[in-house]
Amino acid sequence: MEVLKNNVDLYPKFHEYFRKYMPKALIVWGNKDPYFLPAGAEAYKKDIPDATVKFYDTGHFALETHVREIGNDILNFMETLPH
Fold this sequence. Notes:
Elements: H1 2-21, E1 26-30, H2 38-47, E2 52-56, H3 62-79
Parallel strand pairs: 1-2
């Protein structure tokens, strides 16, 4: 639990970085995640307006249920990055 607390303590620095550098971002999220609600994914767009947010019909462990779909979305996203 200490690791999670440390992450939460660093959130302001993460958001400062996002606002300053506006990195290209792909946010993948399970729309039925009981811990990290969909609003949490959408919140990234406050700091990175051009972020791509993708929801999958699943819960917290999206990669366990949608590995191929997410993998393909990651590869497609990577193709949009500068080489």
